[in-house]
Specification:
Elements lengths: L2 E5 L1 H7 L9 H13 L3 E4 L1 H12 L5 H19 L5 E3 L5 H16 L4 H16 L4 E5 L9 E2 L2
Parallel strand pairs: 1-2, 1-4, 2-3
Antiparallel strand pairs: 4-5
Helix pairs in contact: 1-3, 3-4, 3-6, 5-6
Length: about 150
Amino acid sequence: MSCIVLVDTSVLLNVLNVPGRNQDYEAVLSELDELIEAGVLLFIPMAAIIETGNHIAHMDGDGRLRRQAAERFVAVIDDALKDKAPWKPMNFPDAAHLLGWLGEFPDSAMRRVGMGDLSIKKEWEQLCSKYPMSRVRVWSVDEDLKDLDQCP
């Protein structure tokens, strides 16, 4: 059985060791090594890329640390785009998918689930439908998404 893992913002922030957002750095790196060794297919949703960049841009304190984190971010995403990383970025959603997600956003917002997490959940649902015989999960250290795990 193959396994597909969507990498959440919280994990990417730890991988990048972003100050103030890296409380699980050691555990995340250890799990990343295990996933790579197991041959898991890793994907970074567009929402995670955008949210991670936003968190870095809004870091408080030392501008040097913000710059260093931004440079690590660029290198990781650049490597992913050039197939030099253990993960691949997911395609940007088409208009039809985005319109569907927007239709669900008011109810999502009432549950305090933002557009980024909603889009990751929707991408997870699409992968579950497309690969019903595969394990598909969202790898997150946040409570909001970590229960998204299809085990056939």
